[in-house]
Amino acid sequence: MAINGVASVSRRDKVEAGGLDRPVRTCVGCRSRAVQSDLVRLVAEGTVITPDTRGRRPGRGAYLHDDRRCFELAVRRRVWARAFRSRDGEGSTAWDLSRVEALIEATPGGRSGRRSG
Length: 117
Prior knowledge:
By secondary structure, the chain is an alpha+beta fold. 20% of the residues lie in helices and 27% in strands. The strands form three sheets. The chain has a three-stranded antiparallel β-sheet with strand order 3-4-5, with no helix packed on it. Strand 3 (14-17) and strand 4 (20-26) form a beta hairpin. It is globular, with a radius of gyration of 15 Å. Residues 112-117 have low confidence and may be disordered.
């Protein structure tokens, strides 16, 4: 709901940390809620899913912990079409996840020290 052109955010969508309210998002893999800065934003460009590490790419984003287990859960649950509200890649093999896999593999141990629920 927008008030005077400003989107209102409910209190439950923010976490207070050190006196600051911080946005909270849900990991599409493990389904746990975490502070947005602890998750990697993913954006679909056609059927290619691209990590948006700067958070600047246009389009609907989905969030994932930088953790191999969360990635594998997301793949197993086939969350991509639902997360991106798309019918283009409904089949389990239609999405190109190579860029996301490369990002996770680049992280030592497939983990960046972030908790994944």
